[in-house]
Amino acid sequence: MRRISQVYYSVALALFFLMELFISSARVAAAVLFPTRPVRPTFLLMPLDATSDVEIMLTANLISLTPGTLTVDVEAGRGRLLIHSMFGAEDPQAEIDSMKHGLERRVLRATRGKRI
């Protein structure tokens, strides 16, 4: 039963990531095509619920693959990710919450095979 759940949550993660990829690509393209809107990049510290190497690596890499964001470092205690966000200064907490409750939560579901 756990394997079936993992497959289900992995497919859900892939679909969610494709949606995020499309949205963030459009957002970055709009910033390039319409430079009158100010881009306010910043560094964000996102606390992690991910504990295993696989969970942290997947979360960090999927964030880096999303246009407009880049994982810069994993904190020494593995409790937080340092992320550069192209639009993070607009509302830093909302940006962190979006990654945490969107991407990281789905990564944890896919790797653990249960609802988080």
Mean pLDDT: 94
- In terms of DSSP E residues, the strand content is 15-25%
Give the strand order, joined by hyphens, for the main sheet.
Answer: 1-3-2
Ends distance: 16 Å
Could you give a short account of the major beta sheet? 3 strands, antiparallel
**Low-pLDDT windows of residues:** none
The helix-strand sequence is: HEHEEH
Count of alpha and pi helical runs: 3
Coarse structural class? alpha+beta
What general form does the structure show?
Answer: globular
Rg over C-alpha atoms, rounded to the nearest angstrom = 15 Å
- Extended strand count: 3
Please estimate the helix content: 55-70%
Verbal overview:
The longest helix is centred in the N-terminal third of the chain and has 32 residues, at 2-33. The chain has 116 residues and is α+β, with helices and mostly antiparallel strands. The chain has helices at 2-33, 53-65, 92-112; strands at residues 42-47, 69-74, 80-85. The protein is 57% helix and 16% strand. The mean pLDDT is 94. The chain is globular, with a radius of gyration of 15 Å. The protein is built from three helices and three strands. A three-stranded antiparallel sheet has the order 1-3-2, covered by helices on one side.
